[in-house]
Amino acid sequence: MDSLLTAIFAAAAALTGVALTSYTNFQTQRRNQQFQMDADTAKHEREQVEKQKATTNQRMMEAHITLSRLAREFSITSLDILWRAGMKAEEYDQRYLAACAEVDALRAFAELYEPRLSPEIEELHGQMNLFWGHFNNVLQRTQLGQPVDDRNSSLQSAHAAAREIGSKALLTKWQLACLVPK
Known about the structure:
Number of helices: 5
Shape: rod-shaped
Low-confidence stretches: none
Distance between the termini: 79 Å
Number of strands: 0
Largest sheet: none
CATH architecture of the domain at 55-179: Up-down Bundle
Mean pLDDT: 90
Radius of gyration: 35 Å
């Protein structure tokens, strides 16, 4: 009977050891799986943040480039080049409409993603309208053979609008640079 009890205790001890080992292995695997899931989740979140940052940076860069193009298009230098080239008012209207499409994209960017920039962009758009009206008057007077010089109010007003557009574009580009995620 002693040998039977010894065998039973030995079997029970072996079963208990197997059970403990199985339980320990199960808990270890569960912790490893949880760790792996947590690591995968953290990696995915980091990737999403980086992707969002890249998208934001791309939008900011495109807005910056558009502002630079608009500032150049509505500059005193551009005015002088187009005027000396003998551009017709109707031709300039087409250039202006193309620039308006660019500013529309810029306005959408500001309204949807960076509302803090909307006031400056709206002011820039308003100055573009003033520039167009005054420069168009200069072109029409030139087409009609009427003299236009530095004292002409339309030319002076176009110059003032050009300076204001340059200032607004510069300010908005600086604000953009401050918003870019580091």
